[in-house]
Amino acid sequence: MKLSDCLREFQTGGLRCTPDDKPFGDVILSERTPQLERDIAGHPSLKPQSFLRQVVHAALPLGEGFIVDPFMGSGSTIAAAEAIGSHSIGIERFFDYYELSCVAIPKLLGVKTYLAKEWLQLPLI
After folding, report:
1. Whole-model pTM above 0.70?
2. DSSP result, 34-94
3. What DSSP character marks residue 21?
4. Which of 15, 42, 62, 92 would be a feasible disulfide site paired with 98, CB 3.0-4.6 Å?
5. Of the candidates 79, 76, 84, which has an alpha carbon nearest to the alpha carbon of residue 60?
6. Residues 77-90: pLDDT tens digits?
7. Is the pLDDT of residue 117 over 60?
8. Gap between the Cα atoms of 82 and 121, Å rounded
9. In order of start, what are the domains of the chain with their CATH numbers?
10. Cβ(81)–Cβ(54) under 8 Å?
11. What is the distance between the terminal CA atoms of the chain, rounded to a whole angstrom?
């Protein structure tokens, strides 16, 4: 099955281009999770919103569908999806983390990232 067949039949199978219609690069720039985000959601494996918003954008090649996070933790992936206008579903087994996510998601949603408008990519070597 070719990528175009997967996109047509299942609406998945490739990475979505960046908002300025450039192919998604081999390297996704990221930063260390900022202190502000760590203060909002004290989870041991919290990822930065600047990184997650790029990954969530790329994961829906046609710009439609749902992001599903079966190990939601603090809800950072769900917040990233909501921040870029995508639908999402989060599942968390541990009640403490579920409660944390209920508080953290709305706050993480409002975080401004340094990559919010710029989709920086490193040139290929």
Report:
1. yes
2. PHHHHHH---TTPPPHHHHHHHHHHH-TTS-SEEEETT-TT-HHHHHHHHTT-EEEE--S-
3. S
4. 92
5. 84
6. 999 999 999 999 99
7. no
8. 23
9. 14-109 (3.40.50.150)
10. no
11. 30
